[in-house]
User: What shape does this take?
Amino acid sequence: MRYPTAPLSLLLILAAFATAQAAETQKYPDVVDVAVTEEGDGRYRFDVTLSSPYDTHERYADAFRISTPEGDSLGVRELLHHHANEQPFTRSLPNVAVPEGVSRVVVQGRDQQYGYGGETVEVTLPGR
Assistant: This one.
């Protein structure tokens, strides 16, 4: 029995539509990686990689924050423009003071329309 096959152009159109639909339904940027460097005196540098497939001039990931697992904010990096041609993208936040006794932090992205949300990454601080 022979099965009909769809032309390649139709498959490409369907794939593009599925990608566009996924981007429309994603409300928040996702944190996909975090590298932490100890700077001394209880301060750390965070290199955070975010993915936000809906990045446009009208809507984009506009910040990420470092928090304790209990939700206390330790630092925020504001992002002033979209990163449509650079996905995923990495930005740094140095000189974040982390109180003694805190050994893990949570990194979360922020969307300029919906606020904080999306996939987070929890990391153990070096030397703690």
